[in-house]
Design brief:
The structure holds 2 protein chains of 2 kinds. Helix content of chain A is 15%, strand content 31%. Chain A is an alpha/beta fold. Chain B is an alpha/beta fold. The chains are: A alpha/beta, B alpha/beta.
Chain lengths: 215, 826
Amino acid sequence: MNATLELAGEQVELRPDGSLFWPAKRTLIVADLHFGKSDAFRAASVPVPGNADGTLARLDAAIRTTNTVRLVVLGDFWHAKEGRTDQLVEVLIEWRAARPEVQIELVRGNHDRAGNPPAGWASDWKTLALSDPPFCFTHYPEPSPDGYVLAGHLHPRITISGRGREQFKLPCFWFGAQFGVLPAFGSFTGTAEISPVRGDRVFAIADGELVSIPL
Amino acid sequence: MSRTRKKPVSTPVPKVTPEEWFARRGWQPFPFQQEAWAAYRAGESGLIHASTGTGKTYAAFLGPVLEAVDEPPAESPPPLRLLWLTPLRALSGDTALSLEQPIGPLGLNWDVGTRTGDTTTAMRAKQKKRLPTVLVTTPESLSLFLTHADARERFAGLRCVVVDEWHELLGSKRGVLTELALARLRTFQPNLSIWGLSATLGNLDEALAALVGVGRTGRIIRGKIPKAIFIDSVLPPRVERFPWAGHLGLTLLPQVVKVIDGGRSALVFTNTRSQTEIWYQAILAARPDWAGIMALHHGSLDRAARDWVEDQLRAGTLRCVVCTSSLDLGVDFAPVDRVIQIGSPKGVARLLQRAGRSGHQPGVVSLVTCVPTNALELIEVAAARTAALAGAIEGREPVVKPLDLLAQHAVSSALGGGFRPDELLTELRTTHAFRNLSQAEWDWVLDFVTRGGEALRAYPEYRRVVIQDGLYTVPDAKTARRHRMSIGTISSEASLEVRYLGGKRLGSVEESFAAKLKRGDRFTFAGRVLEFVRLFEMTVRVKLTKRSANTVPRWAGGRLPLSGELAAALRLQLDEARRGVFVEPEMIAIRPILDVQARWSRIPAPEELLVERLTTRDGHHIFIYPFEGRLVHEGLAALVAYRLSALRPQSFSLAANDYGFELVSPDPIELGATEIADLLSPVGLADDVLASLNAAELAKRQFREVARVAGLVSPGLPNAGKSAKQLQASSGLFYEVFREYDPENLLLHQARREVLERQFEGSRLKRALERIASSTIVVVDPPRPTPLAFPLLVERLRESLSSEKLANRVKRIVADLERNAGPVNG
């Protein structure tokens, strides 16, 4: 179940897979894919199973359901150089080649020093903010004069507690006055607790549903 | 800090006989020492048990020494002949000193050295050329030696291994690490004799079996009869004002100061490092004149600071030292004449061990004064005294078949010159831990260390251990280095150094505490109030401040559960109280509280199980009191919640302490005596507890240690740099990824089994349920929280368990939050 909200005057949809869809531009925005993270562990002889299939399948489903024409990745496409294996690059090139109709733009994140984007995804990283009024797409959640910032980097998580002292830690979307942060989209990625302030809007992802958290 | 040892004197020293050497020191060899020496000469192995400070060290050491005295004198110090394993590297220096003492006078040309994680690079280089005749080391350092291909050659002259404080290692994976190393040494030297030194345990035969290995025998030698031990407590001055629940905090401080004042030198034991800091500050505030002659000691302090404290204790210059179990072990502090235990010792053996740290002068008794931190702990003190008198001492259950450690050992063995699976399996089966290792389990471990297990079939490029002509080896230098750095089984949270801005090192705090510090936060550490300045390159930079602290560092580390022996003694004390018999002074002191319990609810008889039901703003509570220790109660709570939620969708949060457990639900819990009897049935126990774990997520947490030992998660290395940072993932993520791709991974099974055994003391849990099955269940609806219930109500650490959909539970919480927040104000 999606959540719809108004952001900088635009209608956007938050999706329980962690992506954000902007219907007016038919643009799907995701952050922190961390491709090759399990490969990086294996390269260091740590026996971690897993590959890009899960992340790609969820990305595919999101693109198809929303009828996306443009995909924006808010940085940390890669995890580490050691994990950028030939096999993985091949899988990513193939996946991309099967969806020529989708335009893709990649913002560079701190982990993307791992290497160039796979062929066909983008010719190069957008190293600076990608301005698309009223929004400004970046990796780091910092205010920008160019518009309302949509960013990643943090892997935001919120802890909520209830009666009977129940407690949950859930990945979430976090929208402040000047920037919004998307949860990490990639599988095998961790989370970090955020400290929102009054007036912020936080949407937690619980069991395939989005729940607005009162602050 | 590693101490450098003097070279043995090469000029002949006037030689004395062992009898003369003892006589010069005013000692007379005890019969048990002579028995041990003779047994060693006869080629036997064995276990010597006695309380500390009764001559166990020389009982084990002089056997090999006397053997050498009868040999022709050596021109130069002979090669490594005796390994002395100690559980604490901090003890290695003192141990080496006391081992050196008889060597010169008895005319032996031996040298003694230490090798631990603290050994300097220069000393390591020297030891690379030649190991000393006697080497004092830890299980981890020994395991590291064994990862080198030349180990067999270097240990060629080894005749004897002594495992000091074997009881400390026995119940943990470190014990298994020791067993594995001993098995390797026995392969090198089939005639090796192995001696263990231990405190008295409830299961000495098993302790011996694990030490000497399968198919070998040994002798149990009982040390000197322990000196008399007296256990008393500080009682609150006015019983009726005694807070019957919650924490006493420092209200008994004046009495504690008085006890310290009454002696020459006191050890004040607390159960946690945080408490150590708090009590140190409090005692100093009460007696500012003790500044400079009191100190504190715990495992997170800088080694140099701890060494200083230990030296001063031995010299008798300190009035008191506030400490944790960090001073449980080790050589004697002769001047200590008072021991104070803050909080319940939770076990009979531990209390006796600590009491034994005082009264080493001839003719003096050991005296320990207990200081309860909450009222109910008074019962535990009375129970500990009666149990100690009755000789009911805890055992330590050896760990069986930890496959994570086996995976580590397989990689270690591959490093140490390589292994052939059949030969290694034969060796493994000589250990107590792996005596029943099946071929299938062994095959799984081999597959896991070579190909990464079933789930990594798709990644042929993966390699850790490589098979060449049937020999398993590690050809990759990077893998080898990384493995050597992570050897061992101690899984602690990454810790960060604490340093002054000027650079002076104070000790370490855990990452999770450091991460929460904000600039200007003040905390007590190493007995000082420090102000946090910044976190920079894995170092917490601080400066001294005159203002008072506003936060206390927390160190992880389990609170110990009440032992089975102490729990049984406690139920007996309660039964006496129920019958109106109040004999022990602590029981007399706590009587008003027990009277309240009896009036509002009931004091259960030994054959009864008390259940209390209550409704508060928090929800619907049910309290059940088996008095079986916290871990068993956590298991029971998960079990009951699971079985209840299987009947109909419901969420619970759970709390447990040493006396009982509590279930709280937002919805009514409708339970009578019959239903509770069904819920606590021992039938299907293992399945139900394990099934409940998926919801309770405990296995995920336990996986932390398993993942660390099996080499999945790297320990936090201070100077690991960026590449290591990219290899950081929480064990929770690993757990998820294995569950998704490799659900049959035996490490997952092990995590679940460990939860059952360790988190819930599985076998004790089963016995508890059997006892409960034959009990009468008494259900009471008290008007308000009873003295037994209140501590559970305030218990912070909670598990939750639910069969409701997560999203629904979150929405309900949100609805509550909305309602409490009042009208929407944007």
